[in-house]
Amino acid sequence: MPQPAKQKKRKKQTTNKHRRRLGRRKLYAAAAVTAAVTAALGVGLRAYLKSRSPYLAQVAPQLRSWALYLPNHLIPPALMLYIMGLAAKVDLIRASDRDVVIRIIEGKSPDDGHPFSARQLVPRALLQRVPDTPPRPAMIWTHGGGHVVGTPGFYDPQNARIAEELGIFVFAPSYRKSQQAPFPADLDDCYAVVRWVQENAGSLGIDPQRIAVCGDSAGGGLAAGIVQRAEDEGHPVAFQGLVYPMLDHRSATDPTTAAQAMPSSRGQFIWTARLNAAAWQHYLGPSHLSRELAPYASPLYRQDLSQCPPTWIGIGDLDLFYPEAHAFAQRLSKAGVPVTFETYEGAYHGFDHIAPQAAKTKTLHADLIKALREVLLED
């Protein structure tokens, strides 16, 4: 039976109190970490907070958070990567209230037998479809995390929403992290899922001509590399959706110079230039800048982009990756590829995870869903 209005109101108030309590705990934890780090570096907490004020002022008010006070730019990158490596061992799964069925599937690439594991999200309505129902589109989502952290289950709420609202199949691969196995291990793991979905489309009820590959951050770079490899090997996909993608291994060539050349708040939060440089070295090797670049490792540098599918890119203007994402969009457009480039003002890297209830976060998700709908569902 439906809940009475008073019960719903009481439940909402309880939920809001819990959120406020959790927010205070996070703020206290952030303050403790910040105080410890600044003290270790000989910087007073008050002086540190004052020094961050000009940067925080450029962040959209709805996206300001306790997390932005964490001194990621001061913590040695090697230590940050170590901490992230420990976090990578946690299989974080977030609950979704969407009417989808989530399964763990395992298989092998039809090309070379490369094994894979992925989360499959299917709207319950698709499981109840009658015979001879036209096949539906599918999306493969490659998660972010700098190639060192992250799990597909963390994206269940977003992927479940995409699956249910569009009535499509969603696959979210697991993949090896760079501290376990550097490039191209993660690309191989995710590409195996794409090929398996393409080859088994008929039995899955999927239209092989309407498969999208999307991802965020390092997963956005993976998605772009997968799309390029699929084109080269004769298995093109229909669409790529890139959320603040990590595309350029040279963006971290000189982190100090890069930071000085940026608007004051770009790259100051969550994912910094120093951390980015360390992550690329971890992923491609410490001497990667002096070696010939492997195909698909740094998708911005592909010479011929003319065969890429329609592309959507969304990124905040304070994101470290904004210049490379914009450059990629310009190169795609110049090559004749339909491109939509969305900029979210006052938004930093990973803002949708830091402020999931913010209007800009909802706009980001809505924009991606709209782009998917236009390419996969509208003739």
UniProtKB/TrEMBL annotation:
Signal peptide: none
Domain Alpha/beta hydrolase fold-3: 139-351
Keyword annotations: Hydrolase, Membrane, Transmembrane, Transmembrane helix
Transmembrane segments: 27-49
Annotated stretches, region: Disordered: 1-21
Molecular-function annotations in GO: hydrolase activity
InterPro entries referenced in this protein's UniProt entry, alphabetically: AB_hydrolase_3 (IPR013094), AB_hydrolase_fold (IPR029058), GDXG_lipolytic_enzyme (IPR050300)
Protein name per Swiss-Prot or TrEMBL: Hydrolase, alpha/beta domain protein
Species this chain originates from: Corynebacterium ammoniagenes DSM 20306
